[in-house]
Amino acid sequence: GRAAMRVTTPDQLPVAGPMPDLPALQPDLEKLRNGAISEKAIQPPPIPGFFLLCGLGARGLTTAPILGEYIACLVLGEPSPLPPTLRRALDPARFLLRKARHNKL
């Protein structure tokens, strides 16, 4: 027998971007939990030099090239090939922000 698996995320979007610094993000998550700020106002602080690209799932063959370019631009400090709304949708911290918004953290 043969088994194959594809790594994906609960929202079916890949994870691409700088790894968030979780201890530095905690105060913002607490404010979000209390309703003091909106999710869009939070800019998760990154861990310098640590980037994620995973959860490509079934569309990895088509999304990997542009997301690889995006990560390369982040590493080199060049302008991103992705619009801000797409960058936010792919942000590695999005699951933490959603849980905090819904008071599930």
Structural class: alpha+beta
Percentage of residues in strands: 5-15%
Helical content class: 40-55%
Order of helices and strands: EHEHHH
Q: The biggest beta sheet, please?
A: 2 strands, antiparallel
Strand order of the largest sheet: 1-2
Low-confidence stretches: none
Strand runs, count: 2
Q: Number of helical segments?
A: 4
What spatial form do the alpha-carbon principal axes imply?
A: globular
Instruction: Output the radius of gyration.
Output: 15 Å
Mean pLDDT: 91
Q: Which helices and strands occur, and which strands form pairs?
A:
Elements: E1 15-20, H1 22-34, E2 46-54, H2 60-76, H3 84-90, H4 94-101
Antiparallel strand pairs: 1-2
Helix pairs in contact: 1-4
Task: Offer a quick outline of the entry.
With 105 residues, the protein is of the alpha+beta class. It has helices at 22-34, 60-76, 84-90, 94-101, and strands at 15-20, 46-54.
Task: Please explain how this structure is put together.
This protein has 105 residues and is of the alpha+beta class. 43% of the residues lie in helices and 14% in strands. The chain is built from 4 helices and 2 strands; from the N terminus they run βαβααα. It has helices at residues 22-34, 60-76, 84-90, 94-101; strands spanning 15-20, 46-54. Strands 1-2 form a two-stranded antiparallel ribbon. α1 (22-34) packs parallel to α4. The longest helix has 17 residues, at 60-76. The mean pLDDT is 91.
